[in-house]
């Protein structure tokens, strides 16, 4: 008989955590504080080749000082590390990857990578996680996959036939790739604004499309009221099993000095909605600033956001008719063995951080404590 392949062998665990970004590491840290051992009781699987979660894939020019704030992981202060005092001159992806590497090593989290999870299935009382590293059998699964692996690009007539280049935020490398080109940036969030600022003086021309007028906040940083409103919107959608709204819809774009200056010089003026594409031209919808005009372009940058990466959970039948997954306090309504970290109201780095402790306690309550070495 042939020896079993890795895919034929079940690797036993009590809990499988899928994803080692902010949410996954936070949850794993608190599970370890509850006496559950990583790579024995808790298996942490991550698709990325290195540490840093989604940050390792972000573009080289992105710096911590210009990105959304990255909050410290629980227990990071004890290591003498803080993103508040991190190097603002180095690429954010390098700083985050370095800090996460040191964190994983210090707390012996033993993340298995790169491991691609292809499906999670129910087999009796267990959940079976199918992956490139084999089958993991567990009593509970914590899904902490975030959104980076599920980029969203809306459909517009003529877009598939556009002869120029098209890229999503997830594909963006640097402004130099667009030197001398006429670039259309689509999207109303912070990534779109960051691209417009970076392309200024590099691209021959930039055009900006948003579906609705951009909401700029007079605050230079995210204020508490806006943050609370955004979290409430995410929580309501998650509980109802609806498609999650964008964070920006609840917070607006803070008017930093750089953003305010760009508004004053006319860089951040949206042309409105897109009607369609014709050849190498974009046709603007009536009613907006573009008002039926046509502009020739060479490239499209889709800064149109992401969706939760949950395709591997399809076999569990968690999705509601309203389009999303109903998640209440981090627990899937349709299967209480499935937990979500960094989903909905936990999507921000501080949300994922705070939710890690509560989620770990809920998971621990379900699976119980591991047996003592002597079996008692």
Tell me about this structure.
The protein has 7 helices and 19 strands. With 376 residues, the protein is an alpha/beta fold. The strands form 6 sheets. It has a 4-stranded mixed sheet with strand order 1-6-5-4, with no helix packed on it. Strands 3-2-7-19 form a 4-stranded parallel sheet, with helices on one face. The longest helix is centred in the last third of the chain and has 19 residues.
Attribute tags:
disordered N terminus; 4-stranded parallel β-sheet; 4-stranded mixed β-sheet; 23% helix; 19 strands; alpha/beta; 376 residues
> How would you classify the helix and strand content by structural class?
alpha/beta
**Number of helices, where a helix is a run of at least 4 consecutive DSSP H or I residues:** 7
Q: Ranges with pLDDT <50 over ≥5 residues?
A: 1-7, 222-228
List SSEs in N-to-C order.
EEHEHEEEEEEHEEHHEHEEEEEEEH
Strand content of the residues, in percent?
15-25%
Number of strands: 19
Cα radius of gyration in angstroms = 22 Å
The largest β sheet comes out as: 4 strands, mixed
**Spatial order of strands in the largest sheet:** 1-6-5-4
The chain-level mean pLDDT equals 86
> Given the C-alpha coordinates, what overall shape results?
globular
Percent range for helical residues?
A: 10-25%
Distance between the termini: 38 Å
């Amino acid at each position: 008989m042939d020896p079993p392949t890795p895919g034929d062998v079940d690797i036993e665990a009590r809990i499988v955590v899928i994803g080692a970004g902010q949410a996954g590491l936070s949850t794993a840290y608190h599970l370890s504080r509850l006496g559950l051992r990583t790579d024995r009781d808790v298996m942490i699987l991550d698709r990325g080749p290195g540490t840093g979660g989604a940050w390792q894939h972000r573009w080289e020019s992105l710096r911590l000082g210009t990105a959304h704030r990255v909050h410290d992981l629980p227990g990071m202060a004890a290591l003498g590390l803080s993103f508040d005092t991190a190097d603002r001159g180095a690429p954010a992806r390098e700083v985050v990857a370095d800090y996460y590497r040191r964190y994983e090593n210090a707390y012996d989290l033993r993340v298995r990578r790169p491991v691609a999870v292809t499906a999670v299935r129910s087999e009796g009382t267990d959940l079976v996680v199918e992956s490139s590293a084999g089958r993991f059998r567990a009593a509970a699964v914590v899904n902490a996959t975030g959104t980076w692996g599920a980029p969203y690009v809306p459909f517009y007539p003529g877009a598939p036939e556009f002869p120029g280049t098209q890229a999503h935020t997830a594909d963006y490398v640097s402004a130099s790739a667009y030197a001398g080109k006429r670039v259309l940036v689509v999207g109303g969030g912070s990534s779109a604004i960051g691209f417009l600022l970076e392309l200024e003086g590099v691209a021959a021309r930039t055009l900006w499309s948003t579906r609705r007028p951009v909401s700029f906040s007079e605050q230079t940083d995210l204020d508490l009221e806006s943050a609370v409103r955004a979290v409430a919107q995410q929580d309501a959608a998650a509980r109802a099993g609806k498609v999650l709204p964008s964070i920006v819809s609840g917070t607006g774009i803070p008017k930093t000095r750089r953003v305010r200056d760009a508004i004053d010089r006319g860089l951040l003026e949206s042309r409105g909605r897109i009607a369609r594409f014709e050849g190498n031209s974009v046709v603007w919808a009536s009613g907006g600033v573009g008002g039926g005009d046509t502009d020739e372009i060479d490239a499209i940058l889709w800064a149109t956001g992401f969706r939760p990466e949950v395709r591997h959970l399809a076999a569990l039948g968690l999705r509601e008719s309203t389009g999303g997954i109903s998640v209440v306090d981090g627990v899937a309504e349709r299967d209480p063995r499935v937990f979500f970290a960094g989903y909905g109201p936990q999507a921000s780095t501080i949300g994922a951080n705070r939710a890690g402790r509560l989620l770990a306690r809920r998971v621990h309550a379900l699976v119980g404590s591991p047996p003592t070495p002597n079996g008692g």
